[in-house]
Amino acid sequence: MRPELKRTVSTDQAPKGRGPFPQAVIVGPLVFVSGQGPLSPVTNQPIDAGFVAQVEQTFANAQAILRAAGLGLEHIVKVTVYLTDLANIPEFNRIYERLVPSPLPARTLVQAGLRGIDVEIDLIAADPQRLGAISLA
């Protein structure tokens, strides 16, 4: 892929992450948000709170990155959710339905061995203004 076709997104309103990867990558009309967890944008460390607060912080981080790309949670088309404990699925679903606008995006949910956090998400969003530039023929 030509480098000019791919650009990264960076905002100080979300944590920088803990590895050599950008907060998000934009390719055409798609925004690929790297895995986000309940990290403080200020300290880049996990927040010291329960499951509900962790999920809310995780979505706040993703939303800040989407906002930096000119989008919002309503533009999400695919979410992958990682939970340390599948017993938290009902609570996660309640929060998810409150935070993510309908129509809900496609979603995958898996159990994962996360270190020091209970939830992580990565997602793909689509910019409706740039979708028209794609030819599917």
Write a short abstract of this structure.
The chain is α+β, with helices and mostly antiparallel strands and 137 residues long.
User: Helical segment tally?
Assistant: 3
Average pLDDT? 93
* Assembly form of the protein: single chain
Strand order of the largest sheet: 1-2-3-6-4-5
Q: Unreliable runs, pLDDT <50, ≥5 residues?
A: none
Counting structural domains, the number is 1
Per CATH, the class reads Alpha Beta
Indicate the topology.
Layout: E1 6-9, E2 24-27, E3 30-36, H1 51-68, E4 76-83, H2 89-99, E5 106-111, E6 119-126, H3 128-131
Describe this structure in words.
This protein is an alpha+beta fold and 137 residues long. It has a single domain (3-131), classed as 60s Ribosomal Protein L30, Chain: A, CATH 3.30.1330.40. 24% of the residues lie in helices and 27% in strands. A 6-stranded mixed sheet has the order 1-2-3-6-4-5. Helix 1 runs parallel beside helix 2. The longest helix has 18 residues, at 51-68. The two termini are 20 Å apart.
Descriptors:
137 residues, 24% helix, 6-stranded mixed beta sheet, 6 strands, 60s Ribosomal Protein L30, Chain: A, globular, alpha+beta
